[in-house]
Amino acid sequence: MALEEVTSGGQPWRLERRIEDVTDRLRVLALKNYHVFVQNQQCAQVVTSELQSLGDNLTSVQTSLPSLVSQSKALDTTVHDAAKTNAEIQYVLGQYAGLMGVLEIPQLIDGCIANDLLEDALETIQFAKKLLEQTYTSSMQPKSSNASSSIVHTLVAEVKRATTALRAKLVDKLRGELPLAKCLHLVAYLRRVDGLWTPLPADYDYHLKQEFLACRDAYLSKTVQSIPTSDAYNYVSRKI
């Protein structure tokens, strides 16, 4: 029954009765489904709490995000460096057999010098110089690793040290008792050794001559000092 029909028909009691009926039904419905309303309220509280916690967590994440980005960049750099180091190690391992042979060159030169194998020592130095120059040129290529370049520099330094030792050996021999032919042979060795790593200067021959004379003078002085002075005749004859 519509509201207009009830009011126009002069039956307000019907409307009141209808309202009371609806109210009773709502009351019964509320009592019957009370637990639903309670659960709904509890659910709303839980959702509100979870949303608050989510908001707090989101704020914490936003606060920590710059630090996380910085640490991620640092980790990326560390991983990149580790990968680069690993590539260098793998390169060295791949060249191990040849590398071991090259690394033994300074020891081989030292062995030749110690056993007076001067020609062998000089030829080994010349071979090592040529080989290391080629390897150094290759190590300067963009794809070459820093490890190979470092190894080449170390070997060059070792071979140069051995060259210096060979030269010292030659000079020391010139201070000994030698025939003239042997002395000239050693001087020729000195010239070859001095021209290995740097070009010979214009006045090189003059300085080499002075060094040769100084060596022979040292030998003569040592020889004279070793002559016994008890026999004057023998002393004078040997000195002359």
From TrEMBL:
InterPro entries registered for this protein in UniProt: COG8, Cullin_repeat-like_dom_sf
Keywords per UniProt: Golgi apparatus, Membrane, Protein transport, Transport
Main subcellular localisation: Golgi
Protein localization: Golgi apparatus membrane
Topology of this chain in the membrane: Peripheral membrane protein
Tree of life domain: Eukaryota
Pfam families: Dor1 (PF04124)
Gene Ontology CC, one term: Golgi membrane
Gene Ontology biological process: intra-Golgi vesicle-mediated transport; protein transport
Assigned protein family: Belongs to the COG8 family.
Name listed for the protein in its UniProt record: Conserved oligomeric Golgi complex subunit 8
Taxonomic placement: Eukaryota, Sar, Stramenopiles, Oomycota, Saprolegniomycetes
